[in-house]
Structure formats: structure tokens, C-alpha cells
Hints:
By secondary structure, the chain is α/β, with parallel strands linked by helices. The protein is built from 8 helices and 5 strands; from the N terminus they run βααβααβααβαβα. The longest helix has 14 residues. The chain starts with 5 loop residues before the first strand and ends with a helix.
Amino acid sequence: MNEKKSFFIDSNIIIEAFKKNGLKDAFLIWQRILDLFLEHDFFINLVVKNEVAYHLYVKRKLLSIEDLRALLKAFKNLPIVEEIEDDMLRLMENYNLKPNDALILATCKYYQVPYLVSLDTDFEEPCKGEGITLINTPQRFEEILKTQ
């Protein structure tokens, strides 16, 4: 068995997986996350919680509030501390990231989560520059899962 890995899950994976006509790659990645939920660590932060709550409950009513609560509690939460807020500004300046994206990347760095699972192309260069591995396809997810 491979070693336990830590993944940060961006909101677009969760949101697209729940949409009726969501992106196929998001759905395929989501299925693997569900398959592996007890074998690896899957993290989110307040940014992801806010975006998922807005899109799946407020905007689209795809989940009840009880189901939304259960979904969000299933993930391990990484609190946004002051150091993450400070790093957000650096990441915004260096990579022209939006504040929420910068908070996500800063969270990965601060908590040393090596893998960011996201379909957001805005993360490609910043992840390379910051030493975080971006997983943006089901194939890439499978490659990472097979590594020791």
C-alpha cells in the first residue's frame, strides 16, 4: 500500500461534481476522492467552505443545509491564521492571483500540504513557483496516488 498523502481540495472540484452537467474531470476526481477518503487526508479551508456553501446551497439549492454541513465536516479543516493572510498578499502580488486563490495556495504552503487538487488554470504557475503539485486531471491524480 502507498503512503498516506495529503491533498487540498479546491471548491471547483466539489461544486462541479455536484452539478447536473458539471465538468467530467471534476466528477472523475471526486469519485476517486470518495473511494480513497479513509486512506488519505483531504483538506479544505474557510474559502472552500464559503464557495461550496454559496454554489451548492444558496445559488443552486443542490444540497439541504444538513447535507451541506455533513459534506463540509467530512473534510479536515485548515484554519486561516495570520501568517496565511500575510502570505496571501505576497502571492497576489507575485502571481496576480485573486484573493481567494491566494488564500488557498498560502494555506497549502503554511500547512505543508504538497498537493492542490483544482481545475483552476490560475494555479499552474503559482504552484510551480511555490513548490506545490497541482493536480488538475484525473490522470494526474492517479499518477500521484501511485507514487511512494
